Every structure is written in structure tokens, then in C-alpha cells.
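Page 42, continued from yesterday. The earlier attempt failed because a stray header line got pasted into the input along with the sequence. Redoing it now with the clean sequence only.
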Amino acid sequence: MVTETTKPHGAHTAESFKESLRDGREVWVDGEKVADVTTHPAFKDTIDELARIYQLQHTDEYRDQMTFVSPDSGIRCSLSYLLPRSHEDLRRKRRNSEIWNEQAWGQFGRGPDLLPQFVLGLYNNREALSAVKNPHCDFGENVVNYHTFCQENDIFLTHALGDPQVDRSQQPQNETRQVKEEDLSLHVVEETNEGIIVSGGKQVSTAAHMSNDTYVSLSATFVRRADPRFIQAFSIPTSSKGLKIFCREPVSQYPGHYGHPFGIKYDEQDCMLFFDNVLVPWDRVFMLYDASAMVQRLAGGANFMGWSNYVRIHERMKTMTAVASMIAEAIGVNEFREVAAKLGEMIMYTELWRHAMNGLEHTAFMTQGGLMSIGRGTGMNLFFAQFSQRMVELLRQIAGSGVLMQPSERDLANPEIRPYLDRYMRGKDVGVEYKSRLFRFAHDLAASSFAMRQEVYEYWHGGDPNRNRVNLYRGYDQSEIMDRIREVVSQPLDHTGPMEAAG
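This time it went through. C-alpha cells are written below.
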């Protein structure tokens, strides 16, 4: 049972987080089976950075802004798992996400404050889950118990929703797959007294190698299945036997001595998950064979993902805008009309996003599940999938060729070459050290392999934008304005011109 564990430890410290990852998980990168993800050079710096932020939960400055004392257990827990029941709770959760994302410059797309909101969404939908009967367990009760477990142990969650990208030609968007399912997609092999046995693959599970648990379900694209064996939702320890985590190429394989302030610390990794007859205990199963409750949740109006995602986006936009402004000043082009206009465009997007977030807070409401939700933000997610690319493009245009041509730290330290760097690679009233390091920020945000990975993530992390636009159109209520237009066009239009009317 998920509730039958060792004594809960509450909000993670830096060391408890690292120790929780030393659990025998099976992680592969570049043909190597990793013995300890906390020390492997491909992962160490990112895990160290996460651990640093976790430790802030126990400092005098941030303790009350990032944690709360559970009224049930008396344990100090992360605000990421707080069940919001008032506007004040929503404000506290927003501030917690602001701290996580301020500390990480908005670069952790799958930060520890994000996936807890999936658990809140399941909790909010617990009655619909319980309505789907199974002789082995109550799915709604499982969700309630799992939330308690996650809250009191500060579980760092990732998720895996999509099918492997092999052959999707038989899956029209938003339709039920009518052909025989391929066994490469995750499916139930058999049921046992202990739980279900599942096999197959899932993509893309960001940060799986450094998560505590992995939540597995179906995305909106793949939720309608003809074969019930392929319908399931559950969460299991990342160290579960038979779960293999396959990592992509790290985006900063050779940092050298150039300095990559973001690429080294914030490569959160993206993983394929291979399930080789993995046992999922019954008390970890939230949906099985019947997707009706999940479809209801996807179509509902509750928005628990909001702050963790919107705040991160805002911090990322603020960072890009500030770097672009500082670069323009460092090379003396900030007063050029076309450059100032580009900077104004970046500020416009950043301010628009801030106003939109405040609007979501203003339209918060109580759900039928008894939790406070911020307003719906589907249009916002689609908007950022588009204009994130524009922000990066503007940063590259303002930085010019300097985004590629900068000396390394070893170059700066070499007395033989340094005089040439000081003369030919300085900026306007700034030395070569300041200028080159500032441009490294821009390079990591707009031109490096890390930057390109971030852009792919921003475009796809909310799901297929075209599918989401279709769903937005289908669910958008235009009845009032349409009725007014119908009333006008139901009668002959007056073509009398002003001169004729006057006569």
C-alpha cells in the first residue's frame, strides 16, 4: 500500500532529495547503465541545482512561502501539494511557484511544483473515478491516499502520456483508434492479486531519471482507444522493477571552458520509458479499461496546472527580455529605432502575460470537487506556443553575430591573447569579461542546443497546438454574440445611403 511506508519526511532537504534518487533505478544514457544519477556527469549539475532550491524550503526567508504544516499530520509539507480551498491558498501556491521559477530563471519546464497539480486534478475528480467500479480497489480512494503520500513525502513527480512515435497513421486527431493496437503502446498484460502487469513504451517523460515517482496516463490525443487494455492511469516509483529509463543526448555534452549558465544546470533531460512486465500495485491504479472519468477531467473547466506553468513562462520571458536589453546597452544599439522597437515588442509580450495571469487569478472559482481553481487558460497556452519562438528570434536579432562569437573563460585567462580580446571584443563602456559572459546568457537562451531543446519543449509540452486550437474552437461559447448577429441578418438590411436618406 502507498500509505504503508516509512515515516514521512515532509518537505525535501537538499540531501533527502539526493538520497531519494539512490534507489537502484535503471537509467541509460549514451549506451551506459548509470550507477548513480546524482554523481553522473550528465545529470549531476542539474540535480545539484534542484537540491539547492529544495533546501530553501527550510530557510527562514522561504520556509513559510514554500511550505505549510499539514493539519492532519503536523508535518511541514511543500505548498506544491496544498489542496487549495480559498483565494488565499491560490495566492500562496502562486508565490511558491514564483520562487521555484525565479531561482531557476524559468528554465525548468518540469520543475517539482508542476506535476503535483496533476495529482490535485485527479483528487478533484475523485468521485468520477470512484464511479468506475473495479473489484480490486476504489480508484477515487486510491487518488486521495496517493495525494496524502505525495504531500507528506514531497514526491518529485514526472509523467508519461504519449505513445511511442513509430506509426501514427491510423490515429486521426481526436478520434478513436479503430485498428488493432500495436503492442508497443503501453497495455495491460494480465491482472494478478497484487496488481496489473503492464508492458510497452511511453514518451516523452521529462526529468524521469531524477523523479521519485512516474505518473502514467493518456494524453488528450491518445485517450480514445478501441482496445480497453490500452486504457490505464497509475503512478509507480521510478525504481520499479522492469522500468527502463532511456535518456536522450545531453544538450551540453562538451561545456569546455566557455561557460553555459543555463545549459549545464537546467538540462532536465527527456526520456523514453520502456515497461518490461512492470507490476503496478492495485492501490496505485487510478483508471483502468474505462476512460470516461479521464475524458471528463480533460473536458472540465478546472485549472490546477496554472501557476506552475504560467509563472515559469513569465520568468522565462522576463529573463529573455532583460538579457536582450542588457546586450543592446553593452554594444551601444539600445537607442537604435529598430532595436528599441524589438525590445518594446518583447516587453509587450511579457506585460501581456502578466496581465493575463492576474486575470486568471481574478476569475478563480470553486469546483464541484471542493477545490479552488484559477480561471481557464487554454488560449494562453496556445499563445505562448507561438510567440515563444518570436521572443527567441528577437533576442538573436538584437545580439547579432555576437551570440556565436565569444571567447571562453580560458581565453580570458590567457595573458598572451587577452590584450587582443580587450581591444577587439569589448563593448560600449564594458570590458570583454562582462560582455562575453552576458552573451553566453543569450547563447544559452537562443542559439545553443539547450536553447533549441527549450523551444521544442515550449511548442509541444501542452500537447499538439493544432488539436488544442480545434478543441478551443469546439468548446468556446459564442452563442450570445451569434444570436445578436442572427437577429440582424434575419431581416433585410437597409441599403439607404446617407444622401438619399437626407433627401
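Notes: The longest helix spans residues 337-362.
Reminder to self: strip header lines before submitting.
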